[in-house]
Amino acid sequence: MSSRLIGTVARGLCAPAVRPGADLVELVANTVLAAATQEGVILHSSDLVGVSSTMVARAQNNLVTVDQLAGEIREKFGEDATLGLLWPTFSTSYMAAVLRGIARGAKKLVLQLGYPLDETGRSVISLESLFEMGVDPYEDTLSEEGYLSLFGEENGGGGFGGEYMDYCRGVAESEGCEIQFLFCNHADELLKYTRNILYCHRRRSPRMEKKLLNRGVKRLYGLNDLCNQPRAEGGYHDRLGLLGASSDTSDRILLAPRDTGEFEKALSQRLDQLIGVPLKVLVFMHSNPKEFTNMDAAPLCSMMGDSLSASAPLVLLQGYRPQ
User: Fold this and answer.
1) What share of the chain is helix, strand, coil (3-state, %, to 5)?
2) pTM listed for this prediction
3) Beta-strand (E) ranges in the chain?
4) Residues of the chain with pLDDT under 50
5) What is the structure's pLDDT at 323?
6) Sign of CA pseudo-dihedral 306, 308, 310, 311
């Protein structure tokens, strides 16, 4: 039997507000040192400091405005375009500014939602409701009217599809953009409405894109194709683009941070200088931590970060042992 009786312990560390241009290496290192001193925490080389990606991106000032995103939508898809959004996950205020920028740059949006679950695992239509109504998600396409007639509130509801539509409609119409919804798991269904498609799923499928191109798509881009080039003003991410972005304010979008490996190395070295212990460092993204690293602690660090207060952008994992 192992002599170890206590597993990984997670501590949320409350750091000062981060402003653009802040020396984040020094700020985080001093926060870890002060917290350990105040609480009498003994640090070991097996411990890990997790830094939220939003904290790093804000220090880098890696921001774009809604107007900048709208301008890029017009550049790529043309003026007054009808734009199809394939399997988006803009269902929460976390992504409000991204959806606002897309709507501001288009004349009309056609949102194709996958079901019964969206990409995040949220129930668009409950499995019980699908079974009761005899709907086959592998074959059937539902319009907004079809969805409401089968799964609307008057029928007891059937998931968050109605809430999803209400939210997205509110954002789009506030930008003067017409919006239409359909529920379907076949990508080429969008071609009945538009030849301009923004592939919003985080995991792009070359096979799916080739199929769409063979069926006559005029313009096809993914979220990682937007905000991925350096510009005179505003931020960018050359690999992720809008993937991993979040709403900083209603008019600004915070992109994923750049050069996270360099930051992790610099912070680890500074912690070693201050504390005398070479702690591991990981920049993690709550929604998809392995976008940044293959380090096997990333999912655990993200889980711990999500379970702690939003005011604790730093996570200290003690006693972590990789499998």
Assistant:
1) 40, 20, 45
2) 0.87
3) 9-13, 48-52, 63-65, 82-86, 108-113, 142-143, 178-183, 196-199, 219-222, 246-249, 252-254, 280-284, 314-318
4) 1, 289-290, 294-295, 309-311, 323
5) 45
6) negative
